[in-house]
Write a structure and sequence with these properties.
mainly alpha; 3 domains; 5% strand; elongated
């Protein structure tokens, strides 16, 4: 933030006038009307390039910025918030995995895997980390967002580890945060720092933990053939139903998930060159669509057989390892 007088004191008069014109610097400050209710930016200017300069003017402006930057280096630096928040990184893992899968970009998927490894490799789940300093225990939203990201990563890579970890963390989340009505408290029982446990009932900058958990449960139900998990997902949506009916905009994520059908597993072409093992084998690749995930089914796998009985998966006679089953997730 700069006062016009500061700029005029540092630059030659012609340069100061030129700089102030291109960067919208005003004597009274350039905060938009209504954007500064407490008057904190009175007389202050945020430097925003207002018009595109020609090459000669751009060179002059660059020199002006160099002078101002050198002066700014003498100011006290603001504190740097460089902690790693589990919930935010879980959302990032999912975004990178989905983007990498959609665009066929292995680099994005590799970045998601590195982040997931980092989050899972620090022992019990924490809310945040800064270097080696552990923050408080993870909240419900940390579990929910990370499970969602791990499921996206599993769908992008087919690596069973991510499904196992999602299954494990969802179980921990249910044990620590789930209420009898199906919604999730934000904090765990017995937390001495919390006087009243609250269940978030609106989606803000992040979706509510219950909204994300409802989809996670439905996805796990489809992937693991667990009717119990699907019923738990329905209970969670029902627990939020009153808010959704009264004000749907408060829970857009939950409203969308209530209408979304869980993806089903179907087998790949038995003649596919990539068909080598069952869905839970390490290294198996998946192919996403709006309502299904292409996998390679094994006729000797109990998990695949269960899906076949529900007509969710068509077993094929495939060479190679055929012993993977749901027990591998435990």
């Amino acid at each position: 933030m700069w006062e016009r007088g500061e700029i005029e004191a540092l630059l030659a008069p012609e340069d100061a006038a030129l700089f102030c014109r291109y960067y919208g610097v005003e004597e009274g400050g350039n905060a938009p009307e209504g954007a500064d209710p407490h008057g904190e930016f009175a007389g202050k200017n945020t430097l925003i390039l207002r018009e595109r300069p020609d090459a000669r003017t751009a060179a002059r402006l660059a020199e002006c910025r160099r002078v101002l930057f050198a002066a700014r280096e003498g100011r006290p630096r603001p504190f740097l918030d460089d902690k790693i928040v589990t919930a935010w990184n879980g959302l990032m893992v999912g975004a990178f995995a989905r983007a990498g899968s959609a665009w066929g970009d292995g680099g994005l998927i590799a970045a998601a895997e590195r982040a997931a490894e980092g989050l899972l490799g620090k022992g019990s789940l924490a809310r945040s980390w800064r270097g080696e300093v552990r923050g408080p225990d993870a909240f419900a939203e940390d579990y929910a967002c990370l499970v969602s990201g791990l499921l996206d990563l599993y769908e992008a890579t087919g690596a069973a580890r991510w499904l196992r970890e999602a299954d494990r963390l969802q179980g921990e989340m249910d044990a620590r945060f789930r209420d009898e009505d199906g919604a999730y408290f934000g904090s765990a029982a017995g937390d001495a720092t919390v006087l009243v446990r609250i269940k978030e009932d609106h989606d803000g900058a992040e979706p509510a933990a219950s909204s994300v958990a409802a989809e996670n449960l439905a996805r796990l139900a489809g992937l693991l053939d667990e009717a119990r998990r699907l019923e738990m997902a329905r209970e969670t949506v029902r627990a939020l139903g009153e808010v959704v009916e009264r004000m749907p905009v408060a829970l857009p994520a939950s409203s969308m998930k209530a209408r979304r059908k869980p993806r089903r597993l179907i087998s790949a072409n038995r003649n596919s060159a990539t068909a080598r093992s069952c869905p839970l084998s390490e290294g198996m690749r998946t192919q996403r669509s709006s309502s299904s995930i292409m996998v390679n089914a094994s006729p000797r796998c109990a998990f695949c057989a269960a899906l076949a009985r529900q007509r969710q998966c068509r077993p094929a006679t495939l060479p190679g390892r055929q012993r993977a089953c749901r027990a591998r997730l435990r």
